[in-house]
Amino acid sequence: MTVQSVFPALEQLLPRVQKPVQYVGGELNAVIKQWDDTIVRWCLMYPDAYEVGIPNQGVQILYEVLNERQDTLCERTYAVWPDLEKLMRENGVPQFTVDAHRPVGAFDALGVSFSTELGYTNMLTAIDLAGVPLHAADRDETHPLVIAGGHAAFNPEAIATFIDGAVLGDGEQAVLAITDIIADFKNAGSPGGREELLMRLAKSGVMYVPAFYDVEYLEDGRIRRVAPNRPGVPWRVAKHTVMDLDEWPYPKAPLVPIAESVHERMSVEIFRGCTRGCRFCQAGMITRPVRERSMTTIADMVANGLAKTGYEEIGLLSLSSADHSEIAEIAKGLADRYENTQTSLSLPSTRVDAFNIDLANELSRNGRRSGLTFAPEGGSERIRKVINKMVTEEDLIRTVTAAYASGWRQVKLYFMCGLPTEEDEDVLQIARLAHEVIKAGREASGRNDIRCTVSIGGFVPKPHTPFQWAAQLDHETTDARLYKLRDAIRQDKAFAKSIGVRYHDGKPGVVEGLLSRGDRRVGKVIEQVWRDGQRFDGWSEHFSYDRWMAAAEIAFADEAVDVNWYTIRERELSEVLAWDHLDSGLDKEWLWDDWQDALSEVEVDDCRWTPCFDCGVCDHMGTEIQVGPTNAVMLPMPTIPSRVAATSGA
Amino acid sequence: MARDRDPGREIIPAVQKLRIQHAKRDRLRFTSHRDFQRAFERALKRAGVPMAYSAGFSPHPKISYANAAPTGVASEAEYVEIGVVQLVDPEKLRAVLDEVLPPGLDILAVVEARTPDFVARLEASHWQIELPGTSKETLESAVVTFMAAAEVLVERMTKSGVRTFDARTAVIRANVELGADCAILQVVVRHGVPAVRPDDVLAALTKVADFVQEIPPRVTRLAQGPLLEDGWSVGDPFSLDREATQA
What we know:
CATH superfamily of the domain at 7-226 in chain A: Cobalamin-binding domain
Number of helices of chain B: 6
Distance between the termini of chain A: 52 Å
Strand order of the largest sheet of chain A: 2-1-3-4-5
Structural class of chain A: alpha/beta
Largest sheet of chain B: 8 strands, mixed
CATH class of the domain at 7-226 in chain A: Alpha Beta
CATH architecture of the largest domain in chain B: 2-Layer Sandwich
Helix content of chain B: 25-40%
CATH architecture of the domain at 7-226 in chain A: 3-Layer(aba) Sandwich
Shape of chain B: elongated
Largest interface: A-B, 43 and 46 residues
Low-confidence stretches of chain B: 1-7
Number of domains of chain B: 2
Mean pLDDT of chain A: 95
Number of strands of chain A: 18
Order of helices and strands of chain B: EHEEHEHEHEEEEHEH
Strand content of chain B: 25-35%
CATH class of the largest domain in chain B: Alpha Beta
Oligomer: heterodimer
Number of helices of chain A: 21
Shape of chain A: globular
Radius of gyration of chain A: 25 Å
Helix content of chain A: 25-40%
CATH topology of the domain at 7-226 in chain A: Rossmann fold
């Protein structure tokens, strides 16, 4: 069965919507294959607007890994804005891929990458527009498998009704393993139908299949147990970990959109994982251990990526980029290579204590000294011990002083509000810290026009972290604390003009908290709110707290639980958590001990430079820390002869 | 050069200017002008074109764009001028640039700039407007009424609010053809301020002749350039540069 492009029908609608270019594809390095030449067809979705989704590294990597297989094709789809959704419904145009504009419903698998839970409602729109039943239980052989991935997939219980499976951890090898299973199944004539295919996937351990697990509840609303309801299905499903990132230098040909995106740069992931041990940070907990990419591979990826994209900025990505064992050599090597070109380097995530001014100078050699960003996260020394963000005020002042002295004019500081054990005083310390930063900066630079921007948002406890048992702070108290901070900064007469404050109100955090630590009962809220028109939850102009609360009211009417039960309630060690059957490698006892340490303000070190403290991951997953130094040398770039010169240039 | 103020960049003046004609086709007709600028600048990088850059703290490549066709309108005749710091072979540039741009953004011709006042030479555009579901007769009668009018005021939303202007005088010639599933309107429109665009012409037809187009039209700019002696044909704006090169 060959599948027709929906573009002729879509084309009629495009002149009537905002930014039609986001729906036409045509990205550089996009791959279009013949439908009939392949056995397994994947559609990958990033459940947000195209401009947000297109730069996503996870999707780009898997897109390429899958398309490299001869028997497989992979295309992409993104959330359509409500203006186009309306027209598509009126005109019967289904959810489509941007590559060849094929209908999403025709694919074997729809992989949805969730960096955050705020994409759940957009997934429902896509499934529904694709003509696929909303509930996994109502799907048959003709429908794609809906598979969730990304960080939020470590607790996909809130969307368990809507997905056929969830993949935990690194996707590179997992998508290939799933593809093998689908290919074998199809080549054998699809014996036993959808149930059999899901069974094969579940048994292999590659994917969590929610339908094969039953959840029982206690009368008070807590979970009694989660257990497989079929023989051969594992009790716990483990995450995937790619070892040796040098073997996986993707994306090799990054997608370059015609439309403008939120990240107009080429990204190279310099390592995966982080063991700094910040207790609020789900990413750091679920991506262990640290696996560095070598300096030589990074240099090759940068050179190749620039040649294939034409980007002018390179972002060296990781959870804490200045922590790479050879970051100084990498930064200097790249700055040397691209000296006198328009190419600039950036390090999106840098810790105050890992940052040094030599590194910053290398990074800005070819670029601008626009601003530096640090995330102390907690305002007081005490709260930073609670969250294990081991950054002292001294570190911070020393670093920003050096930065202001070397010509930077602007420093951005990120904080969180609502951390466990937090009092007003902990947050008000941020005002004092900002005051000290400006004071030190004015002295160091001898100028009064330096600035410091304080950005602060509400903390949301996440699964698989020591704070998974913590009570989330209610939004009223969060907002009150933020206003107190704002007022304290405003009242700082001599300094207020130099300090900007940006804060996000606490309400969206409540919904994020509900979804993050949600169980299967929360699925009814998601469906209700989506039916009530909720879309694009990550966008303040589309997010409606009231709509969510009204939906929860209806969905929880016959349940022993409510929104507060999920968010502002502290859990006990004995409680079965909705994600206990999903294995991030972290030992639950270790997490609990770390939670207790947090409450006692005891810090824990980084296992990269201290002995192992038994978080459980490497032991349990058979993985190991992979860090340099490699002591390799980055050679200057060879000069490439011009292809357009007037003389042949031989 | 003071290193701590400007990161060691040397400003090299342009030694040559090149004029480029490109097309915007098929699905990439939905590319906005800003989208095209970004895609084009990245293509120049990938092609290794030795671009000249402006001075200053955030240098920009020397590129001038002329009269971009509106978003959603296809074109066979868009024009760009670039400055380079090393001599470039126009034909090689055409081939390499075309190769590195996605299909749909196609480089049609490149000439070395040998004459001044290029933009002033772009006097008029020839637009082809395909109107699916409209009969040739309906369109013809609307066009006759429109061309008979001395002035047809239309409104358009601009950045500074709704603007009312005449869409008739700028239209030098309009004729109607029969296409496969549509009637086709061929119009030659003189450039001016405000520019009269194909959608303004359609709005004017609706206004004078009760003409309704349900399905969105497919519009293509077929040519852009000087008006020839007959008063309505659009010539090749590269002719003068080509003659100067050959001379």
